[in-house]
Amino acid sequence: MSSTTEEAPTICPGCGAKIPRRGLSMCPYCITPLPGGAQGDTSPVAERLSRMEEKPGFEEALARVPEEGVEWQRGASERIVGQLLIFVGIGFLALYGVFGGPDYDVLSFSLLTGAVLLLAGLLRFFRGKSRMAKAVSKPMLKRAAILHERRSETELRGGDGETVYYYDVEFGDGVRGEFRYPGRGAAEEPWPNGATGVAYTRGDELIDFERVRV
Length: 214
What we know:
This protein is α+β, with helices and mostly antiparallel strands and 214 residues long. Among the domains are: 58-66 and 138-211, CATH 2.40.50; 73-135. It is built from four helices and five strands, in the order H-H-H-H-E-E-E-E-E. It has helices at 46-50, 58-63, 70-99, 105-135; strands at 140-157, 160-171, 176-182, 196-202, 205-211. Strand 1 and strand 2 (160-171) form a beta hairpin. The longest helix is centred in the middle third of the chain and has 31 residues, at 105-135.
């Protein structure tokens, strides 16, 4: 007799992320229902988080639109640099168009410089736009949550070290997963273990966290 029990997937069919643990009823990163997962997930903190709706500041936290994550910010910066290069490149080309000619070596140089700057600007502009679009390709989710544990790793980027925090986050429906949060610098203090509030996530990235005590 063949079993009709559907095996729980290890990869989310909705977003393609790796499922962090067995028995989840939905993906923690995109809330896609998972076949074979436990229905009605419960945990000792589920009741505690359910009381968050009654707390001052919860509705405001849900309505808040946080700044986008680090990758989106980097894409925006690259797009701005591209716009500046395009502007300067057009300026050099305009200079050649007004005064240039085959006998003007300096102005002929401005033609080459303008073309190079314009091309570089276009490349950086569209690459920045692509990074921004990719960073927001997944929906932002706002959920009551508790931060169980935090670990950190240092990643090299452009010769400099960048601290990335990984939070074990549990949500009010019992779903739990690990989310990455790129550090914003030494001036910003990471959230402590056990903090409760509203988590803003895109995929496996923790965009921001608004503390609401329960």
